[in-house]
Amino acid sequence: MSEKRRIRDVIERYVCHCRRRNVHVLLSQFIVSHFSFVLQSLPGLTSPEDLKHHWTAHFRTAVCSLDTNEWELDTQKIVWTEVALKKKEFETQQKEKEMGFDRKRKTVDLFNREHEFVGLELENQQTQNYIPESSKKRKVICDEIDEFFNLSSPEIEEQRTSTEEDTHNSEAHDKSSNSDRGDVKFNHTETPTLRILLSRYEEAYKAMDNARKWTLSTGKVVEDAVYYFGKRCTEEHLSHSFVIDISDAAYISSGTFTQDEINEIARTNSKPTPEMPEDLHSYIQTYRQDNVDDLRRAIFSPQTWDQDFKRRTHFDHDWVRQSVYNIVTEYEAYNFMRPHLEQWYNIHVWRLFDKCFEIIPNVEIARGESPSQASGERKNKTRTVPGMTKIRRQFIGRRVDFAVRKHLVEYGCGEVGLCAVNGENTTKLMIERGLKAPKIMRDMFMHLSNSVGNNEQVIRSLETVALVHKELDVTMLRLDSPRGYICRVMRTATKRIPREVGMFSKVLAVIVMAWTTREIVRRVMSVLESYDDDEDLRSSCRPALSVPAAASQLILPETNTTPNNARNRMR
């Protein structure tokens, strides 16, 4: 079907619809109700004059063929400059999406060719046959890969310059064309694309002060290495938010860092793990039993603090006793031998983490797919009152299974899930542990940094935590900023509640992890609440203007926005 016939069929259906409802046939209402169709039709026409001429002609032809009397070409009510701008943006996005698919296919082809020669080289080494031509061909492919991923190459620069010139020309045309403005407004939400994501990534990198970057003892600059690694990624990765996961093997396998450099990153300005008091540790040791009868005897054995209980002093002892008792009752009912839903684990098992935080006043463990306040703050940071278009809708934060809050300030989060396949590297667990949770932790860290005026000295003492649960397994993540503009994620070994009571001593490690998580949050709260910015009260009511950051301030780059495209692919 030709383009002209397709447009005519759509307009005729609109006219028939108006007849049935006994309403006037208006061009402006057609444009509004079929705005997506208008954007996809007449490819290549992006000037206001051409759009006005062609749509007026198509509309008049279609309406006259149906012998309709009550119709009107109310072109003065249509903001044709805005229609042209949205159409140009739409066509640009389509071109970029096609370019993204091409980049994906070419990436796979290049690496497949490289891996083919790697296999040949390994085979030659095993057979002790050296073929110089094979190594030369592989070097040519490696050079082609480096050139392909260099975003400053002439091909990429030409595409970027062309896009920027088109945008500049459209903006200039909008400023000079004010005669077509009317009452009809349009709203077309732009989806993040590869160009936008990488351009934001590049802007954040270029905004960094080289003197404040993190240089390792080997002379390697961490921010530079992470940036060039992120440029090579075709999928979303923590490096696009300048976050290093110490456990991520991709940095070593790609040659970005050596194992010694990763160890140095892990050791630099590492936060101490809270030490449990000796009396509490000794009390927990009394539950190293391997049967229900001995555990019950230990639970109900009289303690000195039973008679003179002081909540501030003996809360942890009482919490340990209650946690052990609740888990013992589950063993007695053989509940851990059967599969359950996610909410069952929250209620019957992981509530011991909720109970642990009850000693801190005004702290809430918000469960039930709660939107992160810090994530929502980042998503809505650029919202304004545009005037020319409708106000962009407010976004909610990324949902988490639970968040640790105090007066809407978040200090940690958690994910709880099920998995039909056992193992620590299932897809769902890897995404939650290696992407989702760290990004939310970083949003919370950014909010804490803003709360202390981005004071660099205070930022180095802050951190956020996350707990990732998989049925009866739990892993704790800690995120901080040890040096430079980099955030670091470190995780503990996975702790597991055994399904049989004979290995109950492993439950004690989970209880200690809950206590440690609470103490980390308590320490960060004390840092935040004791901060005094020494603000001059005489200037506190002056207009807030954008001023350069002080020497004592450190402005960290924002967390990267997750692509809207299918399966979170950066294309």
Task: Tell me what you see in this structure.
By secondary structure, the protein is an alpha/beta fold. Among the domains are: 83 residues; 239 residues, no CATH class. The protein is 51% helix and 10% strand. It has 21 helices and 10 strands. Strands 3, 4, 5, 6, 7, 8, 9 and 10 form an 8-stranded mixed β-sheet that branches. Strands 1-2 form a two-stranded parallel sheet. Helix 1 crosses helix 4 and helix 4 crosses helix 5.
The portion of residues assigned to helices is: 40-55%
Please give the radius of gyration in angstroms.
30 Å
Class inferred from helices and paired strands = alpha/beta
Question: DSSP helix count?
Answer: 21
Give the N-terminus to C-terminus distance in angstroms.
31 Å
Uncertain regions spanning at least 5 consecutive residues: 126-131, 151-192, 566-571
Mean pLDDT comes to 81
Shape: elongated
Any key phrases for this structure?
571 residues; alpha/beta; eight-stranded mixed sheet; two-stranded parallel ribbon; 21 helices; 10 strands; 51% helix
Overview in brief:
The chain is α/β, with parallel strands linked by helices. The protein has helices at residues 3-21, 27-33, 35-40, 48-65, 80-126, 132-149, 154-176, 194-206, 222-232, 250-253, 259-267, 278-285, 292-300, 304-307, 311-332, 342-348, 351-356, 373-379, 427-451, 456-459, 505-529; strands spanning 25-26, 71-72, 243-245, 363-371, 399-406, 409-417, 463-470, 473-480, 487-491, 495-496.
